[in-house]
Amino acid sequence: MKLIIHRGTKEIGGSCVELKTEKARILIDFGMPLVDAKKEKFDFKELIGKSIEELKELNVLPNIKGLYNNEEKSIDAILISHSHMDHYRFLNYVHKDIPIYMSKGADELIKISGIFTPNKLNKINSKVINKKYFNIGDIKVTPYLVDRSAFDALAFLIEADGKRLFYSGDFRGHGRKRALFNQILENPPKDIDCLLIEGSMIGSGDQVYENEVAIEKKIADILKSANNITFFFASSQNIDRIVSAYKACLRANSTFVVDIYTAYILDRLRKVSKHIPQFNWRNIRVKFYKDQADTLANQVSTQTLYYYNTKKIDIEELKKKKDKILMFSRDKSIFPRIVKELDNVEGAKIIYSMWDGYLVPDFEEYCAKKGLIIEKVHTSGYATIDDLKAFSDALKPGVLIPIHTFEPERYRSLFQNVKILRDEEVFTLS
Ligand SMILES: [Zn+2]
Q1: Residue 205: pLDDT band by 50, 70, 90 thresholds?
Q2: Average pLDDT over residues 301-319
Q3: What is the C-alpha to C-alpha distance for residues 257 and 245, in angstroms, rounded to an integer?
Q4: 230 with 351: CB under 8 angstroms?
Q5: Share of the chain above pLDDT 90, in %
Q6: 376 C-alpha to ligand 1 centroid (Å)
Q7: How far apart are CA 43 and CA 55, in angstroms?
Q8: What predicted TM-score, i.e. pTM, was given to this entire model?
Q9: How many angstroms does the Cα of residue 270 sit away from the middle of ligand 1?
Q10: Ligand 1 center to residue 406 CA distance, Å?
């Protein structure tokens, strides 16, 4: 079996891995980069109006034969580890007949992004993984559910030509699914010849909040002492975090107010897990925004909108109960509208529960002017260095290859049997 990392040996985001035998070729992940060649934020507007050939020239798309929709296909399948754009967003360019395998949760979230955000994928040949393992030609694939801020995220065991490779995907051990991480530590896949392991947290400093339970407790404490409304900034697709916020509301006897987009995500994932809070559960209400309501009615159904309407909360009620409200306000364009409607937000807190790289000076100035207090309450979606070490100690790979990291060289001081590859280098497992 041969391995080529097309992107990911020295950066976080845009991972793309190829595995091939004499008879089959597969890719794992095909995401949009987060940074450009100068390590500056990758601007997706770069893609607009450019052909596949132009994007290859610019080294935005990797040069992979038989992958794209302007040629004859020779890639047999693509596996997607989870529903973050840095792992799937380039699927738009792939040949429409290539089967794309992913979890049920990832499939739902990718589809919902296409409805509510500008991230609409072209039609792809998606296949929900519902088996313990499956074969693509002579390559055997076994998915492993992992703990991650992306819902229903997978790692993959790949077996071919008598070799066993494990692709960690992005994972962590301090989320609400730590049990999955522990299961792998206790009962790791055996005889792993090669481990591709992410290292997003290597070189990124320590965490303030240890895990999701610590986040839940902190949110509850803030709610208990609130004397105005509390805003909650997080990704609507970060289900672990939404569960933490909801549980905090139950502890503080506050009401969690979500928008229609978030209510719809939770609703769609009901089929995947019955532990996900729903709009019709106690202490949850829905705030309507016209654009979201129109999108739901036009692209999903008016019936769904009627359901959510039964739990709608209006501005007068929000004002009345303000010190008992946790208001989901992820979108910075929606946020000033709510602030305006509420009149007085002096002393209100914003629980900032996402990566603080998104926190721009403009926004901080705006908050200061309105008397809003930003409080960062976040824990990373990625594994800590201790957990990465525990993971590699459990798998004891013959070779450990860095991926999804800005710090490949630092792997040598943390792990055994490290082999650093370059993007596009062909590595033969032997
Ligand atoms: Zn990633």
Answers
A1: confident
A2: 97
A3: 10
A4: yes
A5: 84
A6: 22
A7: 13
A8: 0.92
A9: 25
A10: 12
